Amino acid sequence: MDPTVSSTMEEATEAPLEQRLLFSPIDYVIFCSMLGMSALIGVYYGFFAKQKQNNTAEYLLGSKQMKVFPVAMSLTATHISAITMLGVPAEMYKYGIQYWACSISGLIVTIFMVYVFLPVFHELQTVSCYSYIEQRFDKRTRTLASGLFMFYCLLNTPVIIYAPAIAFSQVTGINVHIITPIICCICIFYTTFGGIRAVIWTDTLQFGAMLCALFVVMTLGTLQLGGVVNVFRLAEAGGRLIWFNMDPDPYLRTSFWLVSVGLTSMWISNIGVTPECIQRFLTIPDMSSAKKAVWIFGVGHILVKLFSVYNGLLIFGKYHDCDPIHEGTVQKYDQIFAYYVLDVARHIPGLPGLFVVGIFSAALSSMSTSMNTLSGTLFEDFIRPRFALKDKTASTVVKVMVMTIGVICLLLVFVVEQLGSIFSLAISVSGVTSGTMLGIFFLGMFSPHINGKGAFWGAIVSLISLSVIAVGAQLEILGGHLKYESLPFRYDGCSDFNVTGTETSTFYRDAAGHDNSEVPWVFRIGFMYYSLLGTIIVIVVGIVVSYATGGQKERVPLNLLTPWVRPLYRSLDYTPEKGEYKLTRSCEMTEIEKIAK
Questions:
Q1: What is the three-state SS of 224-257?
Q2: Domain for residue 19, yes or no?
Q3: In 249-350, which residue ranges form alpha helices assigned H by DSSP?
Q4: How many structural domains are present in the chain?
Q5: Alpha-carbon span 22 to 172, nearest angstrom
Q6: pTM for the structure as a whole
Q7: I need a surface site. Which of 36, 52, 146, 217 has the fewest CB within 10 A?
Q8: CA nearest to 20, candidates 168, 167, 171
Q9: What is the pLDDT of residue 22?
Q10: Which residues cross the membrane (predicted)?
Q11: CATH number of domain containing 382
Q12: Cα–Cα distance between 333 and 336 in angstroms, integer?
């Protein structure tokens, strides 16, 4: 970066409060109203609804009587976190729109969910999807999987909470350390007392707020730039329209392959084999309705991701000749979308409040889901097998666990703020665990020959390898050794341009000319590949260990295999002493196999 630019940025790291674009009273009213409505939903289902939250079947699964639409909306809201709302536009502004390829990943994930994973889990009807792992492999592997999920939730949820907190701080001037505990306490309240019904209906309400905020901001921003054509014209002139970067280099920050291939494996894991999704599908009474919910979720998930990509173009169009970071009005790129909304909507009362409501809605839905699902998973996997509890007592235990998890996540927020970009941080955290989890389920559902030892040690090797890579990369980033050069930013349109007469260029790049070659190659691997790498490690190590230890010694029930591979084994007999399947007879296909075929 040009020394003059660097100096300017250092002097402007903290813009005075009076220079910021701040909330109006009506914005505070809209924001507080949404929080109040969310809390009231928790009060209703916790104290006044006919369905009392005094047993685990109702508290965790809504007595399996939920409707398709609210469940689909809840799923979409859960996976459209504040990281999507804030991190994706900032990423597009800084590095271009290659992330659009996530739509390909979304389609593949939806197909996998409908035809590979959902039939197995809906047939088993278990609260914890990790009970499948015990039935297919052993209790040790199930315990490991549950522990990984706990690890993921406790690391990822603070990132999700921190994202809207910095947005709120940008638009109000209120310190992150003040607003975060308030928001978390409201979420903990309605999740604890309202159960899964409150979580699903608050998610539906909050997703509606998200969509309203997105549509209004997109429409207003597009009109201010002179229409969609002009938005793309400005983006193309600024080099942001990167549709197909087919460079296979795994050390890039982003490319077509990194997004389409890397995110596919991560999303298949996070959507197809996580308790937070499986639990929601099981609240729907029949398979046909559950599939409809998946398709609605898949389409909604893809659309909101693409809307966020487009918002990145709107930000660039607005600031194509004056980067707010250079000007000093914004401290971090993660804050730029919040600043943009207040900038374009400064004369429209209530719109900034609606936007922040949308951001916080995304975070609250993700946090409430994590707390509800994690408490259910820990109860089913660690407490129920060891203690004989009555339904009412069990429900109370789960509620206490929800509160405890919420408090832990709140405390960890103050650790997250010391780390790097929320976009890359969130994907890195997810990649460490999602690849390992996907590998375990792939081994179990696609081959009856893999045994528990193979799955367990494959997961251990994968987890250790990915943890070393992710932690090492984060340390390199914090040390300033691992950086990615951004696309160019202009600043000749800024109000203070050429005040000193020393500017020799109208462009600068973040981390311009930085060379990552001195960073060990393993830490330079693109963070979007973490999940794929973890899956491959589990599968390879799992196969090797299984065959080295004699393979699966007991026959695997066909309902534990995905419908895609059941026809290959339905006419085979099993030889326990050899661990082999041999063609000896035929048998009738189950109803679920007929559906799959």
A1: HCCCHHHHHHHHHHCCCCCCCCCCCCCCCCCCHH
A2: no
A3: 256-257, 263-267, 275-281, 287-318, 324-327, 336-344
A4: 1
A5: 5
A6: 0.74
A7: 36
A8: 171
A9: 59
A10: 28-47, 68-86, 98-122, 143-166, 178-200, 207-235, 255-273, 294-316, 354-375, 396-416, 422-443, 455-475, 527-548
A11: 1.20.1730.10
A12: 5
